[in-house]
Amino acid sequence: MNNQYYITTTLPYVNSEPHIGFALEIIHADILARYHALKRDEVFFNTGTDEHGVKIFRKAEEQGIDAQSYVDEYASKFKELKERLGIFEGLHFIRTTDTNHKAAAQEFWRKCLAKGYIYKKNYEVKYCVGCELEKTDSELENGKCPLHINLEIENISEENYFFKFSEFQKPLLELYEENPNFVVPDSRFNEIKKFVESGLQDFSISRLKEKMPWGVAIPDDESQVMYVWFDALVNYISTLGWPEDNAQFEKFWGTKEQPNAVQIAGKDNLRQQSAMWQAMLLAADLPTSKQIIIHGFITSGGHKMSKSLGNVIAPYEVIDKLEASGLNNQQAIDALRYYLAREIPTFEDGDFTWERFVESYNANLANGIGNLASRILKMAQNISFEVSNDILELNHNSLEGVYHIDELETMNIDKAMDEIWLSIQSLDKYIQTNEPFKKVKIDLEAAKKDIHYLIFHLKGIALKLQPFMPHTAEVLLSTIDTSSEIPRLFPRIN
RNA sequence: CGCGGGGUAGAGCAAUGGCAGCUCGCAAGGCUCAUAACCUUGAGGUUGUGGGUUCGAGUCCCACCCCCGCAACCA
Questions:
Q1: Strand B: which bases are under 7 Å from protein Cβ?
Q2: So what's the pLDDT on residue A128?
Q3: CA/C1' separation A304–B49 (Å)
Q4: Which of A262, A350, A403, A426 is most exposed, with minimal Cβ within 10 Å?
């Protein structure tokens, strides 16, 4: 049994406001982090912000402020996610502009360079004179800039540092071979295997400083800065204090014999996390990750969220809307957490619309757990039910000996919640079948037995809800244990 | 011949080759502890199209149609 649990999200790029897709990722990670903390594992939970690169440099220029002030402002917005989404207390938040991160990225670079995996090469840049910007192939249509069809694209050659990705085909395939659960779900694992099998090309990992100074300085070369990807990926270990704090690094990141790091990422990040970053770790002679969990995207009304479609959903917007419907902040957070964890399939794309949200909220939170708690607690109150010791002593470690949720061990967050809602349903059925509300008038002892059964199992449900909906779980637990005033967990909304 | 995922009830999804199911929504009945909540029952399907294999196909094979991603230095 492992006593250390490391989990990290990817770092969102700070060129826009927090997006509900990232809320999904951090909430998934949070559920796993909380789950392991409840199992008494020592948890290191990392997130942060990716702050270098040309896009940010330009945005700051546009706004007429320096890049550092620009990223400072955005980083604080992302830091707020912790409070605004009810994230785990011990969350570590790293910024790629942190001094220790930059130093770590440079040390990482030196290691790769020393091993001979970094070299210089001419890099062909496609440049649109009209936009005065570099363009990638995917941005071009028929070899022309779609915004300036009348202009020819110019090819400019510049010297960049390259990473010898091509040398890692075999090592990566071996890594995949030896770790049959390296990437979940299987469909994504197959996708990355195919990609690696099809051949790897070295990629550029630097930019000319004179054109784009907003990056980590390259050791012993004043003329270039690191390409944002290279420095950003290093955050997963710089957050642990690598390279200085080797003890903490090994404790949480693990060793070559026993890798320990779990990473969660969106499907757009499959290659970067499960191939490029792993190759970089191998190049630097460091342990690889243990597992990469790939989640899907949230669509909005069946379409990819995009600014031009105007269907982007911000997590704060959902919370504000719920508060306007009469929920308090904590209830709103748990309601959002519920939807993201249960209604969005853990490994697939899922849809978010306000209509679906309301439907699911009313069915499962208001009518489900909310109403169940309310009817059970009311019956208990009516007969002045006294909480017995076996109920008081019930805690998360007494659930089948230790805290354990099967479906969470395999990262099936939505399925884990399905199980909980099956229990909720079965308690509703129990009440209907046994009718303790009738027994009260005929046979008080029998009614007490039923109510004891109900309260006991309601507390079990509350314990299982802890990682998913921490506030709801806490309210339920304290209400049961202290027989305090009956809360209305989730009022109906419309 | 670029790669991958998908098409099943109004919506969202599930079904080792063996009676096509679940949740929401909808309708009827029941119950009164509860937040017009809860329980039971019901309606709703030619499983994208056309072939094939098989005693038997949503599932396997072939062809086609449609949708959605990705197509690598755009993080």
A1: 3-6, 11-14, 23-25, 30-40, 68-75
A2: 67
A3: 28
A4: A426
Of A238, A161, A139, A258, the C-alpha closest to A205 is A161
Q: Residues near A463 by Cβ (< 8 Å), separated by ≥ 6? A: A394, A395, A396, A399, A403, A473, A477
Average pLDDT of the segment spanning A73-86 = 90
Distances in Å between the Cα of A277 and the Cα atoms of A45, A220, A270 are: 19, 23, 10
**E-only strand ranges, A36-190:** 42-49, 92-95, 118-128, 133-135, 154-163, 183-184
CB A294 within 8 A of CB A184: yes
CB burial readout A127-166, b (16+ within 10 A) else e: bbeeeeebbeeeeeeeebbeeeeeeebeeeeeebbbbbbe
A351 CA to B48 C1' in angstroms comes to: 22
Q: Tell me, what's the pLDDT at A190? A: 82
Q: Which nucleotide is nearest to A204 (CA to C1')?
A: B73
For residue A270, what are the contacts with CB-CB under 8 A and spacing of at least 6? A183, A188, A191, A192, A292, A294
Q: Which nucleotide is nearest to A367 (CA to C1')?
A: B37
> Residue A135 has what pLDDT?
66
Q: Let me know if A82 is exposed, middle or buried by CB neighbors in 10 A (0-12, 13-18, 19+).
A: middle
H-helix or E-strand spanning residue A253: helix A246-253
Element (H, E) at A425: helix A413-434
**At A323, phi and psi to the nearest 5?**
-65, -35
> Distances in Å between the alpha carbon of A464 and those of A337, A370, A409?
15, 15, 14
The DSSP 8-state label assigned to residue A402 in this structure reads: S
Q: What are phi and psi of A159, to 5 degrees?
A: -90, 125
Place of tokens 């649109």: A128
Digit-coded pLDDT (tens) for A418-469: 889 999 999 999 999 999 999 988 999 999 999 999 999 999 999 999 999 9
Coil, strand or helix at A125 = strand
Q: Predicted ipTM?
A: 0.87
SS3 A467: coil
